[in-house]
Structures are given as structure tokens and as C-alpha cells.
């Protein structure tokens, strides 16, 4: 008899690199630790290697799979918990949830951004390209430190659970992967205003901060804002921690 693995032809456009490392699957699912009343949202269940383990945790599961062929096969195994939908557009639960997934590489970053900014998000255990995981956990001055690091800090803490080589997947991806655990830690000042500021600050990475912020005021005004915020006028965004951007946002608001 054919196994479920042998009949699935992976589709590149949906980033289908299926996990074939059982120990890693166990470790990912063990890291979710759902609390009573929390839902589990699985993103991109694929062949169901994580789904079958999630079903044993005792929490309500919702699995969102974009590929109609995979979704149909999964529905035969797991029932109505499987939605054939795009995880970037499907409403997230209206009650506390934990998210999990071996994310498709092409949409990994927007999925992380969407999930952690949701008010009902509690924890996510996500497999990502190692390079994206490094950006999530980077520190000021690191090469990977940037917009995604600071965006993540607005909503969550982050740690790397493990890294995986391409041989853990079928077909083998070109890059290494890492599993990141993100725990909700929403800052009271998280807002579109500060996200816009951080985004502008990193627009031209090698430029001085003042030169990236000229949409917010004249050069003189921005230099004044930086001085009042206690920031070196020659600083680059990549050297500054989140609280420096919070102070800049405060002083920019006073300009308006
Ligand atoms: N979880 C499975 C595993 O570990 O073997 C599959 C992982 S595979 C890297 C990514 C899965 O996400 C694929 O099944 C793919 O079809 C699905 N996918 C891709 N884009 C998606 C999207 N926007 N929304 C939901 N699922 C998506």
C-alpha cells in the first residue's frame, strides 16, 4: 500500500518542504504547552505530521492549509478542523490561541507579523528560515538587527528552540531552518505610529538615522528631536534599542 508521504507531490509555489524529522516534530509540539481554554492554530499542516500530534494535546485545533488537495486529504483524517484557506487572510480566533507551523518560507515573515500582533495571541512555535529566525532574536549592533527585530519586540519575546539542516525535510530546502518560540509580551506603546517610525528608520540601512527620518520633519527639527531624546545625532538605527525609538516617537509627537 502507498503511504501518504509517497502520493504527495510537493508544490514549490506554496513552499512545500515537508518535515521528515520525527524528533523535531515531537519537540515542536511539546513546546506549545496550551493552557485551558486556549485554541491551537496550525498554519500550513501539509501532510499532517504536526497535526496528528496536536490532536493529542486536548485543546481545540484549527488547521489552515492553502493547498486544496492537501486540505482534502487532511479533512479525511482530521475532519472539520481543517480549513482550506490562506493563513494571511483567514480570521484568527476571537479567543486566546497558540499558533504553530512549519511555515512556508515565502510568506513566513508576514505570517509571524500578523499572528504576534493579534490581541488573542499567546504563544507561537514557528519553523522559519534560519536567517529570519536570526532577525527575530537579534540584538542592537548585530548584522541581523532591524525592523523585524523591533517589530517583534513590540509584541513578543523570542528564543530559538532548535536549528535544522535541509536533510530534515522533503524536498530539501536550500537553506537551514530554525524553530522560534514567541511568547506574547505586548508593549503598551505598540502602535502603527511606532511601527511607521521604525520602518522609516531602517529604510536605508547604512544611512544615519537623521537622514531616514526627514519625512517626519525638517533636518533641523529631527536633529532637535534626537538631542531631546538623548540620542547621538550621528547614530544609525541599527545601534539603537527599542526604548530609543519610543523616546523619538514621543518627541516627534510634540513637533506636530
Ligand atoms: N506542516 C507541514 C510539515 O511540517 O511537513 C508542512 C510544512 S510546508 C513547509 C508549508 C505548508 O504551508 C504547505 O503545506 C503549504 O501548502 C502551506 N501553505 C503555504 N502557503 C500558505 C498560506 N498562505 N496559508 C496556509 N497554508 C499555506
Q: Could you walk me through the main structural features you see in this protein, from its secondary elements to its overall organization?
A:
The chain is α/β, with parallel strands linked by helices and 256 residues long. The protein folds into two domains: 4-184, Rossmann fold, CATH 3.40.50.150; 192-253, Helicase, Ruva Protein, domain 3 (Orthogonal Bundle), CATH 1.10.8. 36% of the residues lie in helices and 19% in strands. The chain has a seven-stranded mixed β-sheet, sandwiched between helices. The longest helix has 14 residues, at 242-255. The radius of gyration is 21 Å and the shape is elongated. The mean pLDDT is 95. The protein binds S-adenosylmethionine. The site of S-adenosylmethionine has 24 residues, from β1 and β3. S-adenosylmethionine binds at residues 14-19, 43-47, 49-50, 64-67, 70, 86-88, 102, 104, 107.
Largest sheet: 7 strands, mixed
* Small molecules bound: S-adenosylmethionine
Write out the strand line-up for the largest beta sheet, numbering strands in chain order: 4-3-2-5-6-9-7
CATH architecture of the largest domain, by name, is 3-Layer(aba) Sandwich
CATH class of the largest domain: Alpha Beta
Form type = elongated
Sum up the structure in keywords.
256 residues; alpha/beta; Rossmann fold; 2 domains; two-stranded antiparallel sheet; binds S-adenosylmethionine
Write the layout of secondary structure elements.
Elements: H1 4-7, E1 18-19, H2 22-30, E2 39-43, H3 51-54, E3 61-65, H4 68-78, E4 82-84, E5 97-102, H5 108-116, E6 121-129, H6 130-137, H7 147-155, E7 156-164, E8 169-170, E9 177-184, H8 192-201, H9 209-212, H10 219-228, H11 242-255
Bound molecules: S-adenosylmethionine.
